[in-house]
Design a protein that fits this description.
Helix content: 40-55%
Largest sheet: 4 strands, mixed
Order of helices and strands: HHHEHEHEEHHH
Oligomer: single chain
Shape: globular
Strand content: 5-15%
CATH topology of the largest domain: Diaminopimelate Epimerase, Chain A, domain 1
Number of strands: 4
Number of domains: 2
Length: 202
Amino acid sequence: MTVTACCLAVPGVARSDGDPASDYLLGSDVFLPFDLKIDKADTDTLKGLVASAAKQGLQIKVAVIGTRYDLGAVPSLFGKPQTYAHFLAQELFYYMKRELIVVMPSGFGLYSVKGVPPADHAAIAALAPPAAADGASLVQAASTAVRSLAAAHGLELSASGASPASSHTMRDRLVITGGALLIVALGFAGFVVRRRLRGGAE
């Protein structure tokens, strides 16, 4: 069955709450598996990278699919990340114009209703599938995919969610402020010493 046929055959079922990711991604940028154990640190890293990309102008949504259960009424698309990426993006058509990354144990899918740039396709196609089908491996693979997509746009991401530029600016401001305070402190210390020396001389 072709991608188009899949999208035409099933959307009515999926919209009736049969496709969990299509509902969840309306209000979030990351969908995670329901029944796989995932470390909070890995989750925070993935969400931070997506937020960092957004702050630099690259809007991404990520769907991590661990089992057929995560696909709700469309389990037949499990193991077909590119087909599901197309299907899911169509479900979200009226709510998002972002690039959508799908991660499954079998590999990655990438789709955008506006069309995916060739460099972005190449960046995701070059990635090896997740190392395993467990939650940690899938989420870490998703983070790698987000970084690779950002690199195709010339962006460097921060897992904290901040853009590297803003992080550097804040650090520079702290350094400047600290230096100014040090100068003031040294000046005051010198003033105190001079007063004491004058007092001793008198």
